[in-house]
Structure formats: structure tokens, C-alpha cells
């Protein structure tokens, strides 16, 4: 069983685990969970709001990860597919990945992933993988585009059991990266939300436009075909999907 630290309330499980790893020797694959997370974050600092005690808020530590610079996003791909693998095992239908790391089910947001890396002089890095997943929450009045496992299946889920299940799923898929990176990338692309469909986007300057998602580059950029048939590759901070 993976080591797990259970907290009642914390600002951010990612911040807690990063600080803990700086201050002492922490076992690889240690999981931190919190019943309530007061300052949860998503990509680009977006706030992650979760009803206390109803959902999964967790982080897991990966030490001594070694990937070449141009393959750093491979780690994100493996982590995301590890989460998807567990959700498939729970028979959750219509699963998709909304670039870069949102988890969608039935066209609604089920959860999100935030990966924070700390690089070392020897070229390796330590990764703290944060996962926020809606488990038992049913009231999303503040976020109509959200859903939860309970809403989908009608079942209740134990957050601690889910933390261990997702932690193991992520660990297994990351371990598979060295041998099966190409297959993981192929599966990641197939699961992209709105792949090959016209979508509305907004760039960093507030300009809105239509485009078609064609894939994701190995650097993690979203490849979008524009109306003139050119393909532009956007970084995370340069574009967002409107839906």
C-alpha cells in the first residue's frame, strides 16, 4: 500500500507536500489527502473549489524522474492516462481529456490535475501531482459545467479508498512510460476533448476565434487548425477553449 498522510484542512495539498519534501526525507509515492482544501489551484492559478468532505483532493510525490527536456510532457500524459485508467475501471462513460489536464465525463468537468516540478542539477526532477476529483458532491449551482462520480453512477465513494486507487493507477502508468511512451501518446490523443471538431477559443489578448483541435505536440502545445487551414501550436498561457 502506498504511504498516505491524511489531513483535515489545508491550504493546498500540493504546497504541503512540496514543503514537506523540502524539509525532510519523504518516501517516494507518498500521498497527501485533505478533507478540505482552502486554496486549491488548477492550471495557471485557477481556483479549485470543492465542498468539504465530499470530494477527492490529493497529491502524490514522484522522486528522481528522468526525462529529456523535449519529452517532459510525457510525464503529464502518463499521469493523465493513469487517472483515466482508474475511471474506466469504475465504468465511468464518455471520458475525455480537455487539454491540458482537465478530466471530462459526458461533456462536463469531473476533475483536474496540477503537476508541479522541481528540477535538480543532475537533470532529474521531483514532481508533485495534484488531483482534484468530484466524488460525492451533487450541488454544482456555482459551476453548471461540472459533474461528479455520484451524479453519474448514483453510488457513494470513500475518498481515502479513491486516493489509494488513483495513486496506484498513476504510479503504474508512469512506470510504463519508459517502455510504452508512443502508445500512451496515441491513447492520449484519441481521448482529447473536441478532437477534430470545430471549437471556439480565446487567446491571451481576448480575441475569440474558431478552430479545430488536431492534437498536442510533444512539448505540450495544443495544435489548432484555423479557418485558413494553417495549424498553430499554442502554449497553455496562450489559449483557452470556450464551451
Q: Please identify the oligomeric state.
A: single chain
- Range of helix content: 25-40%
Largest sheet: 7 strands, mixed
Give me the CATH superfamily of the largest domain: Bira Bifunctional Protein, Domain 2
CATH topology (level 3) name of the largest domain: BirA Bifunctional Protein, domain 2
Pick out the low-confidence regions.
Answer: 43-48
Strand order of the largest sheet: 1-2-3-7-6-5-4
How far from one another are the termini?
39 Å
- Envelope shape: globular
Counting H and I runs of at least 4 residues, what is the number of helices?
5
Strand content: 25-35%
Which radius of gyration do the C-alpha atoms yield? 18 Å
Domain count: the total is 2
Mean pLDDT: 93
Number of strands: 12
CATH class of the largest domain, please?
Alpha Beta
**Could you give the order of the helices and strands?**
EHEEHEEEEHHHEEEEE
CATH 2nd-level architecture of the largest domain: 2-Layer Sandwich
Summing up helix and strand content along with how strands pair, one would put the structural category as alpha+beta
Report on the structure:
The chain is α+β, with helices and mostly antiparallel strands and 243 residues long. The protein has two domains: 4-190, Bira Bifunctional Protein, Domain 2 (BirA Bifunctional Protein, domain 2, 2-Layer Sandwich), CATH 3.30.930; 198-242, Roll (SH3 type barrels). It has helices spanning 13-23, 73-89, 149-153, 159-175, 177-190, and strands at residues 4-10, 31-37, 56-65, 95-98, 102-105, 108-119, 125-133, 198-203, 208-216, 222-225, 231-234, 239-242. It has a seven-stranded mixed β-sheet with strand order 1-2-3-7-6-5-4, sandwiched between helices. A five-stranded antiparallel β-sheet has the order 11-10-9-8-12, with no helix packed on it. The longest helix has 17 residues, at 73-89. 32% of the residues are buried. Keywords: Ligase.
Amino acid at each position: 500500500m502506498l504511504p498516505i498522510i491524511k489531513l483535515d484542512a489545508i491550504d493546498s495539498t500540493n504546497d504541503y507536500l512540496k514543503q514537506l519534501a523540502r524539509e525532510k526525507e519523504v518516501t517516494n509515492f507518498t500521498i497527501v489527502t485533505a478533507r478540505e482544501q482552502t486554496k486549491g489551484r488548477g492550471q495557471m492559478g485557477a481556483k479549485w473549489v470543492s465542498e468539504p468532505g465530499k470530494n477527492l483532493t490529493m497529491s502524490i510525490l514522484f522522486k528522481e524522474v528522468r526525462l529529456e527536456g523535449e519529452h517532459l510532457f510525457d510525464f503529464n500524459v502518463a499521469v493523465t492516462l493513469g487517472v483515466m485508467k482508474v475511471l474506466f475501471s469504475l465504468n465511468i462513460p464518455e471520458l475525455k481529456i480537455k487539454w491540458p489536464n482537465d478530466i471530462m465525463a459526458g461533456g462536463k468537468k469531473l476533475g483536474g490535475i496540477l503537476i508541479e516540478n522541481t528540477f535538480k542539477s543532475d537533470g532529474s526532477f521531483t514532481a508533485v501531482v495534484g488531483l482534484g476529483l468530484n466524488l460525492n458532491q451533487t450541488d454544482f449551482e456555482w459551476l453548471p459545467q461540472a459533474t461528479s462520480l455520484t451524479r453519474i453512477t448514483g453510488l457513494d465513494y470513500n475518498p481515502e479508498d479513491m486516493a489509494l486507487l488513483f495513486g496506484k493507477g498513476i504510479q503504474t502508468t508512469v512506470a510504463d512510460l519508459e517502455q510504452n511512451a508512443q502508445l500512451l501518446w496515441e491513447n492520449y490523443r484519441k481521448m482529447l476533448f473536441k478532437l477534430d471538431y470545430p471549437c471556439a477559443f480565446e487567446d491571451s489578448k481576448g480575441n475569440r476565434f474558431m478552430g479545430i483541435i488536431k492534437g498536442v505536440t510533444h512539448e505540450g502545445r495544443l495544435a489548432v487548425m484555423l479557418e485558413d487551414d494553417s495549424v498553430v501550436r499554442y502554449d497553455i498561457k496562450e489559449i483557452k477553449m470556450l464551451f
